[in-house]
Amino acid sequence: MNFLYDPVGFLAEWLRGLLSTWGIPDVWITFMLFLVGAGLLATGAMVLVVFLIWGERKVIGRVQDRFGPNRVGPWGIFQTFADLLKIFTKEYITPTGVDIVSYNLAPILAVASVLMVWAVIPFSITFYGTDFNAAVLYIMAVGSIGEVGVVMAGWGSNNKYAMLAAFRAVAQLISYEVPMVLSLVLPVMFAGSMSLVGIVQSQPVWNIFLAPLGAIVFLISSIAEVGRAPFDLTESESELVAGFNIEYSGLKFGMFYVADFLHAFTISLLFATFFLGGWQGPGAAQFPFLGFVYYVLKTGCVYFLTVLMRAALPRFRIDQMMDLNWKFLTPLSLVLVMLSALVYKILPKNMVFLQVIVMVVLNVLVYVVADWLLNYYEKRNPRPAVVNELRPMARFPYAVAQSSSVSKKAREG
Amino acid sequence: MLNDWLYIGIFAGISIFLPAAAITIAGILGPRKPDLLKNSIYECGIETVGTTWVQFKAQYYVYTLVFLIFDVETILLYPWAVAYHQMLLFGVIEGVIFILILLGGLLYTWRKGALEWV
Q1: A370: closest CA among A330, A341, A340?
Q2: How does pLDDT run across B8-25, given as a tens digit for each residue?
Q3: Is B8 an interface residue toward A (CB < 8 Å)?
Q4: Quick one: which of A117, A53, A58, A76 has its CA closest to A271?
Q5: What residues contact A170, with CB distance under 8 A and at least 6 apart?
Q6: Exposed / middle / buried, residue A255 (Cβ in 10 Å: 0-12, 13-18, 19+)
Q7: Which tens digits make up the pLDDT trace of A214-263?
Q8: Are B11 and A129 in contact (CB < 8 Å)?
Q9: CB distance B78–A107 less than 8 Å?
Q10: Which value does ipTM take for this structure?
């Protein structure tokens, strides 16, 4: 195992050899290696958020026809470090009457729930935290701890608007868990295993070709899970005053912010794992470093897509979001799981090309039927159109002509 | 498998410790000047009216119930999905019937108005 081909595995083996020559028993060696590995991974994730925030600000700036941050360092790379320095030295204004445990534990839980997902993600064929055999359930369970953090933030803030906003946020988050978990049944089905390592290794043909509609449902519902635009009603920065984190200042608020960006990156990682084949690619099995590079590229593409969606789309209303989830995404994913399971069982096992074509046709058919159903329902209950009424316009009426005549008089007499 | 849980336990400890340590360090570095006006609860710039922990809509509870039903359904679907490759068509049709029963449940809650945002 060369250092160039597989840096992480090489370093792990070298450290293990070093510790065993020092005479430490095997159990302690495992424990120490786990400690070092987990510490490096968690710290790496937190440091990555810095560059994620910078990248997002640059891309959103370009979409809005301006540069992003470009003063602090070349291309503004150190902008987020400057912001972090500022936020580290801000005062924690703790309002009166807060529930101390809830109020202080909420940001910690929000970040912890996202970081814990990184323990089971396979970055390459040798670089993964642990090959947990129920990893999909673990990811769903741990992701829900963040929602508890939201409720604790709202409830513990002693502010009725924070509490109501937290309830609304949690209603959105738990609703969108359902199509997310349902659409994850598809990769588990195709792989025959719930461990992420098994799912990645079962994808010489990417799952996005076997279940494209499932991939789209997963992407939409996980973007709603994060609470990013266009589903960011919970922290709509221009409407409610920051929702459930009204009463937070300083780094506690910064932790919610970090959790938001890290969660968005984590769902890009999960999408690349489940549907885009993870680290699979030409030559990735022999050279693990190449697998890691492929994985980073795929995740970067998906994250870029989520940033573009944030920059381009306006926000949904809360009843539109709930209707989209319960009346469109949930039945769609249920029907998709049923039909995919039936059709995939009937297909012959070794003709991959035929499988891909039939599954893609099935997904397109399901989408066409769903779309037709939506149009049919819309025709039967149309929204009332506002016609023959002048829209109120932000224009100063009738004074333009008078002012020109006034100025004429002033000039003459 | 014990190694898996050990790693996850270590990772959980580290992922709780890291933000807690960062928040504590920032608490030490920042100023600490509590003031009566600064610590008052925010309500769009006016004094707060009434107690904080107000009543909330029952619709949130109904959403939670519907979510619970579908969450339990998906947890029961996962073993079916894991055993998919060892099943005959008969097993697949059993799973499909299970999902159909729950689709019927979704239709019932839809028509009863449990999914409206009032």
Answers
A1: A330
A2: 999 999 999 999 999 999
A3: yes
A4: A117
A5: A147, A150, A151, B60
A6: buried
A7: 999 999 999 999 888 788 776 665 455 567 777 888 888 889 888 989 99
A8: yes
A9: no
A10: 0.90
